[in-house]
């Protein structure tokens, strides 16, 4: 952008205006110059300096304007980029919203299906529970009836067993009384038999003593006879054999009676 103000070139301005040292040298009047001319030249120089300062300020303002415009342009670019990014994000949000709505509708549909299935399953479970309850109740009644019948039979059996036990107890009591009576009678018979055995033993002992005496007497007689008849052969005497048998029986009876006593 070009400056909006142009400094008019004065015939009195030279190239020394670009050099401060030369400008200062022109401002100092020489001795041969006219004072009015010097005043005019000073005025022109002052005007030129003011215009130069004004152009400098204008140039600085233009530079600032350019910088601000560049910043505004960069900001516009950033805003446009942010707008495009916002549009992309908004599009993504709309897509996500549409996807979420679809998923939400799908979830609602699935929830409705699951609720229907759950309701149907609950109904089936209730019906099954009712049927199972009826079956279990029927079985329980049957088992209870069987148990009641068993208890009745057991009660009858217990009563019959009690009667049998009472009868057996009565019979046992009767048998015990008979046993005691027979035991008493047996004891009396045993006492009588023991007394009889003692008497028999005494009689047998007396008889044995008599027999021994007779045998001793017989031996003595036989010994005398043998001395008289030594020249004769010995003869067999059957009475002696009978005497030996009698003695053996007596010995056996005596031993038996001694053991029993």
From TrEMBL:
Residue spans with biased composition (Polar residues)? 7-28
Q: Outline the segment boundaries, as ranges, of region: Disordered.
A: 1-31, 220-241
Q: Any idea what this protein is called?
A: Uncharacterized protein
The organism named in the record is: Aphanomyces astaci (Crayfish plague agent)
